[in-house]
Write a structure and sequence with these properties.
The complex is a heterodimer of chains A (448) and B (476). With 448 residues, chain A is α+β, with helices and mostly antiparallel strands. Chain A is 23% helix and 39% strand. Chain A folds into 2 domains: 202 residues, PmbA/TldD superfamily (PmbA/TldD fold, 2-Layer Sandwich), CATH 3.30.2290; 223 residues, no CATH class. The relative contact order of chain A is 0.13. In chain B, the strands form 5 sheets. In chain B, strands 1, 2, 3, 4, 5, 6 and 7 form a 7-stranded mixed sheet that branches. Chain B has 2 domains: 223 residues, PmbA/TldD superfamily (PmbA/TldD fold, 2-Layer Sandwich); 242 residues, no CATH class. Classes of the chains: A alpha+beta (448), B alpha+beta (476).
Chain lengths: 448, 476
């Protein structure tokens, strides 16, 4: 099936499902329908050879039902066969009514509204497997390449019985890969909407050059506090912790937000740091799981002070706040960190002596009340002396409070913010990404 | 079963001659979440995840295509996609396989349970959760009280062109209670959970309410407690933390696909190397670790893996010596290392990879009191709160919800923010005592793979004593 066929069939199917569902509603009932669909080719590589290939076609429908003051959610895979799927949705509507009849009232139910209509379609030009596989592996000949390609069309749509109608469709790919030299490795991502052999070759050459640096003598670094430069991918990993409840209104009100002291003005972060939710990057739709539309840009942290937390409509109702289009999880969907003034060519000089970190690994809150996070260094990480790379390090465990690392210890931000595309594929391929510069941080604590 | 058997036979009959073997895996999973927070319904959500995975072996390479269209036309299209991509990939395959990696097994499995997870239990489950939420009430410092039930009913049917016919049905529950106590800038949470293969018998109101009261009381205790002290000391880990310790520092490093390098771009490699099997002293002589998909009520009990391999109990580590890896028939063929039946996929739309199932620490002969009695200066920790380990599975740091000091063989004051860190092999060689009474725990959320897969795993363990561990508390 071509992308055009998949998109057209999916749209027609959604039309039929919604028409059936909305026409069967009784007085006092409303529904929101969300659709997530993909037609994706997944290829995983080990040692520059194909380990597994999986083609996935799926369309997942999510229904939120409101009736009699009760709220019920139901999700299902669509078969793509209109009659069978319409029969399934009849059954699901009955199931929602059955559940609603025995559930207590939902005191924080937000009545559905028409949040408008939108349509965004980003077309791409992707290679078929027969051309794609040699295009990936031939330029990497002789390399121990381990990687993961995911490409195809991803659709996110949302409608409700009040008339709202949103459609977001994007056709693109990412190739997330590592090059290994024994136990040492570098990491990169090549992502676009059309495969370009020159761009892939240039990306690969940069990784090969980094791999050469890893052949320098291994440096043994003892636990301690070191001035450290976080390359954009590493800083994106660190800031990714903001997705774990840090900026959520519900987490704050329920005593779970690690940024409680920031929210209640007890502490501030560095004036160098400004973070926004910026849908202008065009990486993900502005509408959320209920079809509510977020503002194009929302300041979250402005010059170190909290400007806004992410407030879903449900939290707004429960806590008397103003909703701002956040999803039910109240995690950032389009995180954008303002660039600073540290130019790429000045990074090693500004670092002087310390650690250059390309990537981090397996982060988790170690003491949420003090916003303390632990994690590991990973991939191309180096000991630097006198502004020169001396050699790679054994991976180090670190444990540091974000109030320190993003507060008084933040010395500078890079002048170029880079987009890190979303490479998450749990259940489905997720569109999106973040834009983050590198960061120079003083006295970062390494523990093991 | 009959419906898909017929569909599979028809699909297999029309495959081209270069398909050496074909398989069809039907999977349907109905998951229901019911959650109550602060005495009000927070979520009532059901999802039906249903589809088919078409699998082919072409020129020695296994490839896959997933579809939720179960018509003959839909299957024909999916098999066509699987064959086309697999043909394109086969000349650059990582390894040559044969149909012997997909045994033609036949059999059934049904989770043990007293009562089914039927739809008409909605009201009873909600009432149980409301009772738990109410039982946690009573102190204004308890700012959040939640009770969450996840009910999962899974049906997997697997057929192959060489005669495999397998039908497995699973009933699973994850029930979790949580209380958060907060005052000023301080906040502490305490949880209780029960997971595994079981039926709605778990929603026994009196027993759940009893746990809810304890959880709320312990959250308040933590709010008042001092920080965990820092230093090197003896450590007793309770089963609900041993679960995480086993999972991260034994389960993942023993996965053969990691050792073979498949996961190096995502989850990571392993400090364990192929030549370590049969000789590596992984831990002290008290350490006996099993792969046991036969144990009733654990999350990952099953009769066959998703490649049709019959599942049996196998010892991975005996007397502290590494014996066997967590590798499927594919990984065993690639590595020459003995493995287990652990080729598992998270859903109909994911290819099977090497996963943990139930990885258990076999009980010893000490009571909990005897373990505590061996400690002059140490700490006992309950319930995982924080977890992180490096990509080779060496350097870990884990945190728990609830700590209690041990002085001169007796349990003492409660401490908050208890954490510890170490290196896997060194840590397991500090194992100095193994309890005799194990508990079943597990997680529904073990992540791995490209494309990513989240799968359920079980871990049964007794409490254990470790000597001389680096322990520390929080900053607040």
């Amino acid at each position: 099936m071509s992308t055009q066929d998949f998109s057209a069939r999916t749209s027609a199917l959604l039309d039929a499902m919604c028409e059936r569902l909305f026409s069967n509603l009784q007085a006092g009932e409303e529904v929101t329908v969300g659709l997530e669909a993909e037609e994706t080719l997944y290829l995983r590589f080990n040692n520059n050879r194909v380990r597994q290939n999986t083609d996935v076609t799926q369309r997942v429908l999510q229904i939120r039902y409101q009736g009699g003051g009760r709220t019920v959610d139901h999700g299902m895979n669509l078969s793509g066969q209109v009659d069978a799927d319409c029969h399934s949705i009849d059954t699901i509507l009955e199931g929602c009514r059955f559940d609603a009849a025995v559930l207590p009232q939902d005191p924080f139910q937000v009545p559905m509204q028409n949040h408008g209509s939108s349509r965004e379609v980003f077309k791409g030009q992707l290679l078929a497997p027969a051309g794609l596989i040699p295009a990936i592996v031939e330029p990497a000949g002789g390399c121990d390449l381990v990687g993961f390609y995911a490409g195809g069309v991803v659709i996110s749509a949302n409608r409700n019985s009040k008339g709202q109608n949103h459609w977001f469709e994007t056709e693109n790919f990412f190739f997330d890969y590592s090059l290994y030299n024994g136990p040492q490795a570098v990491k990169s991502v090549y992502a676009a909407s059309s495969w370009n052999a020159q761009d892939w070759a240039a990306n690969l050459e940069r990784s090969k050059a980094s791999l050469q640096l890893l052949k320098r003598p291994l440096q043994s670094v003892q636990p301690g506090a070191y001035r450290s430069y976080f390359a954009p991918a590493a800083f994106a990993d660190l800031l990714g912790m903001m997705s774990w409840g840090a900026l959520s209104a519900a987490a704050w009100k329920q005593g779970r937000s690690p940024f409680k002291k920031l929210m209640e003005k007890e502490l501030q972060l560095s004036p160098l740091l400004s973070v926004s939710e910026n849908f202008g990057m065009g990486l993900t739709p502005r509408f959320n799981d209920l079809g509510e539309v977020a503002p194009p840009c929302l300041d979250l942290i402005k010059a170190g002070s909290l400007s806004n937390v992410l407030v879903s409509s449900r939290s707004a109702k429960e806590y008397g706040l103003q909703a701002n289009g956040a999803s039910g999880y109240e995690s950032p969907r389009a995180l954008d960190v303002a660039a600073g003034t540290l130019a790429d060519q000045d990074v090693l000089g500004a670092l002087g002596s310390g650690l250059y970190l390309s990537n981090l690994h397996y982060l988790n809150w170690s003491d949420p009340v003090s916003a303390r996070v632990t994690g590991m260094t990973r991939y191309a990480c180096f000991w630097v002396e006198g502004g020169e790379i001396v050699g790679p390090i054994n991976n180090l465990r670190w444990d540091e409070s974000l109030y320190n690392a993003l507060g008084p210890q933040l010395l500078a931000l890079g002048s170029q913010a880079e987009i890190a595309p979303e490479v998450g594929t749990y259940s489905k391929r997720s569109p999106g990404g973040v834009r983050v510069p590198g960061a120079l941080i003083d006295a970062f604590h390494f523990t093991l | 079963m009959t419906e898909f058997s017929s569909i599979a036979r028809t699909a297999f009959a029309s495959l081209p001659a270069d398909v050496q073997w074909a398989g069809l895996r039907f999977s349907q999973e109905v998951t229901t979440h019911r959650m109550v927070r602060d005495d009000a319904p927070q979520a009532n959500a059901t999802s039906v995840d249903k589809g088919l995975m078409c699998e082919v072996l072409v020129e020695g390479h296994f490839g896959y295509a997933a579809t939720s269209d179960s018509t003959q036309e839909g299957l024909q299209l999916a098999f066509g996609r699987a064959i086309a991509t697999t043909r394109a990939a086969s000349s650059r395959k990582a390894h040559a396989f044969e149909a012997v990696q997909r045994p033609p097994s036949q059999g059934i499995y049904q989770s043990p349970r007293v009562q089914g997870l039927d739809a008409d239990s909605t009201q009873a489950i909600t009432e149980c959760l409301l009772a738990a939420s109410a039982a946690m009430k009573g102190d204004e410092r308890l700012v959040s009280r939640t009770a969450h039930a996840m009910l999962i009913q899974t049906h997997i049917a697997f057929f192959s062109s060489t005669g495999a016919t397998i039908d497995q049905r699973f009933d699973m529950v994850s029930l979790k209670l949580s209380a958060t106590a907060a005052q000023g800038s301080q906040s502490q949470s305490r949880t209780w959970s029960r997971t595994g293969q079981m039926g709605s018998e778990i929603f026994e109101v009196d027993a759940v309410v009893q746990q809810a009261k304890r959880v709320a009381n312990e959250a308040l205790q933590l709010l008042e407690a001092p920080n965990c002290p820092s230093g090197v000391m003896d450590l007793v880990l309770m089963p609900d933390q041993m679960m995480l310790q086993i999972h991260e520092s034994i389960g993942h490093p023993l996965e053969l696909d990691r050792i073979l390098g498949d996961e190096r771009n995502y989850a990571g490699w392993s400090f364990v190397q192929a030549e370590d099997f049969g000789c590596l002293r992984y831990g002290s002589e008290l350490m006996n670790i099993s792969f046991d998909p036969t144990r009733a009520h654990e999350f990952a009990s099953y009769a066959f893996d998703d490649s049709g391999n019959p599942a049996t109990k196998q010892m991975l580590i005996e007397g502290g010596i590494l014996k066997r890896g967590l590798g499927s028939l594919e990984s065993q063929q690639r590595s020459g290392i003995e493995g287990v039946a652990n080729s598992r996929s998270a859903s109909w739309n994911r290819a099977p990879i090497d996963r943990m199932a139930n990885i258990n620490l076999e009980p010893g002969d000490s009571s909990l009191e005897e373990l505590i009695g061996q400690v002059q200066h140490g700490i006992l920790m309950h319930t995982n709160r924080s977890w992180s380990i490096d990509d080779y599975r060496n350097k870990f740091q884990f945190g728990c919800e609830f700590g209690q000091l041990i002085e001169h063989g007796r349990l003492g004051a409660v401490v908050r923010n208890p954490n510890y860190r170490g290196v896997s092999i060194d840590f397991w060689n500090r194992l100095a005592g193994v309890g005799r009474d194990d508990e079943i725990h597990g997680t529904p959320y073990c992540g791995k793979g490209e494309p990513s897969q989240v799968i359920r795993v079980g871990h049964a363990s007794p409490p254990c004593l470790f000597r001389g561990v680096e322990v520390f508390g929080g900053q607040a």
